[in-house]
Amino acid sequence: MKNLWLFLSRYNAIFWFIIFFVVAIVLVVRNNSYQRASFLNSSNVMVGSFYKQVNSWKSYLALADANEKLTQENVLLRQQVQNMIQANPVVDSVHLVDSIEQGRYAFIIANVANNSIHQKSNYLTLDKGSADGIERGMGVITSNGVVGIVLNTSAHFSSVQSLLHPDTKISVTLDTSKVFGSLVWGGNIDPRFAMVRDIPNHIKVKKGEKVYTSGYSLFPAGIQVGHIVETGITSGESFLDLKIKLTTNFSNLNHVYIVKDLLVKEKQELEATQDNG
User: Where in the chain is the domain with CATH 2.40.10.340?
Assistant: First the structure.
């Protein structure tokens, strides 16, 4: 207590100055309209700036929740768009499947837990597994392209054979001629490019032409996989290879969509009876 009094007595001039200064400010503001308006405006600016900063911090902390909500909305939108595409045989000059397949596909969001792109055989690990309805053989896509095919599943994770794998082959179609080919990574070592093979050599193709999924494999029809950057690559007397630039950015994959074909078992059962016959 004695030390407190010594401190106050030593610096009493400063404390008295602060007290009189605050009283003077209050009196000036209360008794002068101009100063009162200026003070209120300044206070509003300071308080507004403070709350703006606080809100920006809150918004930053809530980014994860906002991102999750956006991905959920993207799934719903993709489902609606796919249903609309399949309900109309031709949209934007893309080869599409018949409208009987409306509502055939469902999409499950997953996060990429691991991803390789510089190996000869590349794989991904996703944070969804059999407990979430994921099964071997399902297709995996992003909002702008194809990623790969589910290879194995555990209860809460699944491994995906990437498009950047020598054994991955996906049926695709060219935008202009509507001919079918096979999308493979081929001999590429660059994750930005792939090859379209088995294109008849009499078909005229041009650089920049878009390439889409055909709907004859694990993926819905009409998903753009890339565009042609090199033509005239001869693979035999009757066929050409086309080099395309992929729309999927494999070096920056965070969220993906696993494609669930609701009619796949019916299709497989029918094809099995044909094979047995």
Answer: 94-262
